[in-house]
């Protein structure tokens, strides 16, 4: 079961209360981060990945035990929710941020979180890339290319980046589903036939009319979150 809006609001509030100067993760970054951890062929213990959620120093500087317990419980709750969803369907609904000025979808924090998770086990991901099929390899390369765009190191032209920017929010779930078939094949046994998962990619694109009939674009209506 995915996290509820109330749970996500609480998670956002708790993460926002962490020392800002330490650059703690946002909800979107955390969502990408735990997805990357769960996609990794290696089991990564919370003791290895949790400190990175708190920020650059790994020190959450919780003011009291109650806050510490609540924050850790909220983070682990979201981790478990994503794990449950991946086990059930091998499909994700990424949590993207939305630019309050332009109302545009910001996939960058999510991708930053996912690639930060990959950096925890770099050698494992390199080995996975070497033994992957074409679809999985292309998916991994695409996510890494998105991070290059995010960091401003991409060699794509401005026109190409603009096109990728529009397509990325809808392509990311497909990339994760493809990666899971190789990185976590045991999930396919639990979730059933993985070929069923991409059916959900038939949902409207973020720039398509919303199926609810509002007349607005999907990204500005039911797909806003």
How would you describe what is shown here?
- It is a single chain.
- The protein is mainly alpha-helical and 225 residues long.
- The protein has a single domain (5-220), classed as YgfB uncharacterised protein family PF03695 (Four Helix Bundle (Hemerythrin (Met), subunit A), Up-down Bundle), CATH 1.20.120.740.
- Helix content is 58%, strand content 2%.
- The protein has a two-stranded antiparallel ribbon.
- Helix 2 packs parallel to helix 5 (108-118) and helix 5 (108-118) packs across helix 7.
- The longest helix has 26 residues, at 158-183.
- The two termini are 17 Å apart.
Can you give keywords for this protein?
single chain, 225 residues, mainly alpha, Four Helix Bundle (Hemerythrin (Met), subunit A), two-stranded antiparallel sheet, 9 helices, 58% helix
Give a brief outline of the structure.
The chain has 225 residues and is mostly helical. 58% of the residues lie in helices and 2% in strands. The protein has a single domain, classed as Four Helix Bundle (Hemerythrin (Met), subunit A) (Up-down Bundle), CATH 1.20.120.740.
């Amino acid at each position: 079961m995915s996290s509820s809006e109330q749970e996500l609001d609480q998670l956002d509030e708790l993460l926002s209360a962490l020392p800002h100067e330490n650059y703690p993760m946002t909800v979107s970054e955390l969502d990408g981060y735990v997805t990357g951890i769960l996609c990794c062929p290696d089991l990564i213990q919370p003791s290895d990945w949790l400190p990175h959620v708190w920020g650059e120093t790994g020190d959450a500087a919780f003011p009291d035990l109650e806050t510490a317990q609540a924050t850790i419980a909220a983070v682990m709750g979201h981790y478990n929710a994503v794990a449950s969803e991946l086990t059930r369907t091998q499909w994700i609904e990424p949590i993207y941020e939305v630019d309050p000025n332009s109302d545009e979808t910001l996939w960058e924090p999510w991708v930053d979180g996912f690639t930060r998770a990959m950096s925890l086990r770099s050698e494992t991901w390199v080995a996975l890339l070497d033994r992957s099929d074409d679809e999985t390899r292309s998916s991994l390369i695409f996510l890494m290319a998105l991070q290059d765009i995010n960091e401003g190191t991409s060699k794509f032209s401005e026109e190409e980046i603009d096109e990728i920017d529009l397509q990325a929010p809808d392509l990311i779930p497909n990339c994760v589903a493809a990666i899971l078939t190789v990185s976590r094949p045991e999930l396919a046994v639990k979730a059933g036939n993985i070929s069923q998962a991409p059916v959900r990619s038939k949902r409207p694109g973020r720039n398509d009319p919303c199926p609810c009939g509002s007349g607005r674009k999907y990204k500005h209506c039911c797909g806003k979150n």
